[in-house]
Design brief:
The structure is a homodimer. Chain A is α+β, with helices and mostly antiparallel strands and about 160 residues long. Chain A is built from seven helices and five strands. In chain A, helix 3 packs parallel to helix 4. The longest helix of chain A is centred in the N-terminal third of the chain and has 21 residues. The termini of chain A are far apart.
């Protein structure tokens, strides 16, 4: 049935939507689901669990990334496709950049998330503002010892990157 | 000793640096630490654990947020200050927006992270690019059923937000 990319995309987006509905019904969190696929097989999936777990990082994409990485025993999602019912928020997009899948497919947009009260679009706008001027202000306190530690860590020949 | 904000900031940044050094020494992950403080008390802390846990989301800030929220039994970090040895990457900054602490204090910058090979500055630049044009491409596949589910979820009077 999944004889081309378009029908494959819709197949897995439908599975993500199923998860979103399940999570919402269980009051686990917001109405979001995510499925991660490698070689036409689901290797990790999840729905938002922020309310149930009291974990603000438990968005559907983060939950699915953690499960898929545990499944692969790897911190990289090489050659994977990530299906999300809604455009990833900046946290989830950042998580996806660190996990490095091949591509992302999403159904609803950040504007649709904003329309039902979520901060995604707001956070996207905040990111571009100077850290000290944001609504969540970030203060830069330079520390010579922290800078020199980072630098010496970077100079190690044996360091592992991720 | 911690008789003003500046000395308090340096006190907790030093603790975060201690954690960063410990994590690096244990090869748990990159050279990053984080401490979350409420009412002059540490309620959650951690260092990067990406390598040890095979979890690309296990940055110091995310680890500390999850622990602090578990400690408070709440998905919000109201009135907390977050101390990080390095400017939060977009994933961690997004996580902080969802957790809503009062402020962030950091020592090293995203440029210092880039200098030792981390993608923070690169991801900050990518976020502003149209999703379909990014180096990690995101394809929008609109789905009427997903949009109408989000919308009807948003119309519930009893919905919990986070």
């Amino acid at each position: 049935m999944k004889n081309n990319t378009r029908s494959q995309d819709l197949f897995y987006l439908n599975r993500a939507l199923e998860l979103a509905k399940k999570g919402a019904q269980q009051l686990a969190g917001g109405p979001f689901g995510c499925v991660i696929v490698k070689n036409d097989e689901i290797i990790g999936e999840g729905h938002n669990e922020v309310l149930g777990s009291h974990d603000p990082t438990a968005h559907a994409e983060v939950v699915a990334i953690r499960r898929a990485c545990a499944q692969l025993n790897d911190f990289q999602l090489s050659d994977c496709t990530v299906y999300a019912t809604c455009e990833p928020c900046p946290m989830c997009l950042g998580a996806l950049y660190w996990a490095r899948p091949a591509r992302i497919v999403y159904a609803c947009t950040r504007e649709e998330a904003a329309d039902i009260g979520f901060d995604d679009a707001f956070i996207y706008r905040e990111i571009d503002i100077d850290p000290a001027q944001r609504s969540l202000p970030a203060t830069h306190v330079p520390m010579e010892e922290a800078s020199s530690f980072m630098k010496s860590w970077g100079e190690q020949e044996s360091k592992s990157m991720y």
